[in-house]
Amino acid sequence: LASPAVRDQVKFVPVTQIVPNPQQPRHVFVAESLDELAASIKAHGVLQPLLVTEVKPGEYQLIAGERRLRASKIAGLESVPVIVKDVSELEKLELAVIENIQRSDLNPIERAEAYNKLLHEFGVSQADAAKRLGISRPQLANSIRLLQLSTEIQTALSEGKITEGHAKVLLGLDTVEEQLRLFNAILNDRLTVRDTEQRVSVTVSKPKRSQFVSPRISGLEDALRESLGTKVKIQHRGGKGTILVEYYSDEELDRLVKKLT
After folding, report:
1. What is the rounded CA–CA span in Å between residue 46 and residue 38?
2. Would you say 218 and 207 are in contact if contact means Cβ atoms under 8 Å apart?
3. Is the distance from CB of 133 to CB of 94 less than 8 angstroms?
4. Rounded to an integer, what distance in angstroms lies between the CA atom of residue 256 and that of residue 130?
5. CA–CA separation, 148 vs 229, rounded Å?
6. Among residues 107, 93, 34, 27, which one has the least CA distance to residue 64?
7. Mean pLDDT for the chain?
8. Considering only CA atoms, which of 132, 102, 136 is closest in space to residue 117?
9. If DSSP codes are grouped into helix, strand and coil, which group holds residue 143?
10. What residues pair up with 64 in beta bridges, in sequence order?
11. How many CB atoms lie within 10 A of CB 168?
């Protein structure tokens, strides 16, 4: 593996010796955008080295720069400039997420899934993850909440059919049925975020029995969310009640059970 002496030095590596990053948070690569980058690379070369780690002699695993690697292959380059780093699996994900965030390359769902992976596969707390990524904790939590939306709405958000602003408004509705109804209205009536907010305000303004949540219960919910890394709701009345813990995959269920037991 790369020694500290050569770490962070730029070297040229054949593209055939670089394998994909299993922690790559980005799934969508627009062909037209790649062709434009390939044309630029053909004319000017790869201006920023890729980040890789050496997994065995003659084989490197990509940490960051998959878009540049793909475009380089399209441009016909046989080798590309790289910086070799020795990193852990957690650091691979962190570096890939940070690079994509800095370049605004991730769609909202890819970003939310990457944040969620940091919390649940690597056991990083929301506060620590936010600090590592250089974002606020509320920003991270609000991003992860997007994964509570139905698959249909998540797909539309990934494809740019609705904006993240629309999605956040939809999360304000209580049921999936209400969310889908308004989601279809957004598409069919071409509603702006402001239009969507107005429709939600009409929906939620219908008389409902008010529910007061005491500061103590709210604080306990926050403590559980921080500890478990997922959405938690305490329903408390007369000294008894229930604790609702949400999960979004079989793997996350296994993780929560292991942590709780």
Report:
1. 9
2. no
3. yes
4. 21
5. 14
6. 93
7. 81
8. 132
9. helix
10. 51
11. 18
Alpha-carbon distance of 32 to 207, in angstroms, equals 50
Identify whether the C-beta of residue 248 lies closer than 8 Å to the C-beta of residue 229: no
Output 34 or 171, whichever has higher pLDDT: 171
Pairing state between β 79-84 and 50-56: parallel
CB–CB of 113/49 below 8 Å? no
Q: Report helix, strand or coil for 82.
A: strand
Q: How far apart are CA 105 and CA 261, in angstroms?
A: 39
Give the least confident one: 66-80, 126-140, 156-170, 213-227: 213-227
Count, residues in the chain: 261
- Region of 209 please: left (phi>0), alpha (psi -120 to 50) or beta: beta
Put simply, whether the predicted model's pTM sits higher than 0.85 gets the answer: no
pLDDT at 209 over 60: no
Q: Which residues are catalytic?
A: 66
Q: What is the pLDDT of residue 1?
A: 42
String of DSSP letters for 231-252: -EEEEEETTEEEEEE--SSHHH
157-183 per-position pLDDT tens digit: 998 999 999 998 898 887 889 999 999
User: Closest Cα partner for 68 from 103, 114, 120, 92?
Assistant: 103
Q: For residue 253, which amino acid is it? A: L
Chain centre distance of CA 172:
20
Other C-beta atoms lying within 10 Å of the C-beta of residue 154:
19
Distance CA 211, CA 246 (A): 21
DSSP 17: G
Handedness of CA 128, 257, 142, 163 (dihedral sign): positive
Q: Mean pLDDT over residues 224-229, rounded?
A: 77
107 token code pair: 């769609």
